[in-house]
Amino acid sequence: DAKTTQPNSMESNEEEPVHLPCNHSTISGTDYIHWYRQLPSQGPEYVIHGLTSNVNNRMASLAIAEDRKSSTLILHRATLRDAAVYYCILRGNAGNMLTFGGGTRLMVKP
Amino acid sequence: DADVTQTPRNRITKTGKRIMLECSQTKGHDRMYWYRQDPGLGLRLIYYSFDVKDINKGEISDGYSVSRQAQAKFSLSLESAIPNQTALYFCATRPSGSNTGELFFGEGSRLTVL
After folding, report:
1. CB-CB under 8 Å, B101 with A44
2. DSSP A17
3. Partner of A85 for a Cys bridge, out of A68, A103, B66, B95, CB 3.0 to 4.6 A?
4. Separation of alpha carbons A47 and A84, rounded Å
């Protein structure tokens, strides 16, 4: 599976937007970009995914670079409940498993 | 009630003991996974199963075995536990043909091997 690179940690102020970057320079044409987050003492939960086009859902937005070698998860207004570890993962079209790297620990300050 | 249930939630055992972690799901998904989480290393895949008769090794399967007793149940066994298997273990499920590829995780089983 192709690898992803994320910053170890980021800080944000409450009610401000947060942009979480992910580099995936070895992504293949059929790899989907997935984002999960893990709240303290919980299992990971799905946030969003995309292939080529930017995506929006109730939780976040996903901006995918034109060359697909990077993506950004956007939380439009961070809340204290958004403090978590965010994982960027690639899933191949034929690959049915997701391997999680170290992720980005997001800290939200009141 | 949780859709993906793991038992036990916490377990302390001694080196050399056999341990089984169980996972059951009420989501009707055919695909099930076992992951291990260590601090700073994210989650690593141990084993996965696409249906009752299909078992596949993940990236760190050595020292572990699994059993898919039914579509809803997927157990992880440590035949002879060792201290470096101390970790947080997660079970996850996913339906085949899912458009999102979304995995649904249990709450985790914390295992300590002394």
Report:
1. no
2. -
3. A103
4. 12
Cβ atoms of A68 and A56 within 8 Å: the answer is no
pLDDT band at B112 (very low <50, low <70, confident <90, very high): very high
Residue A15 sits at the chain B interface (C-beta within 8 Å): no
* Ranges A45-49, A99-103, B53-57: which has the least confidence: A99-103
Q: Are strands A104-109 and B43-51 parallel, antiparallel or unpaired?
A: unpaired
Q: Do A36 and A20 form a contact (C-beta atoms < 8 A)?
A: no
Cα separation, A52 vs A30, in Å, equals: 10
Phi, psi of A37 (to 5 degrees): -135, 155
Are residues A96 and B45, on separate chains, in Cβ contact within 8 Å?
no
Instruction: Please enumerate in sequence order all residues whose Cβ is within 8 A of that of B52, keeping only pairs 6 or more positions apart, or say none.
Output: B68, B69, B70, B71
Could you read off the pLDDT of A21-75 as tens digits, one per residue?
999 998 888 888 999 999 988 999 999 999 999 999 999 999 999 999 999 999 9
User: Could you tell me which chain B residue has the CA closest to the CA of A90?
Assistant: B101
Greater model confidence, B94 or A94: B94
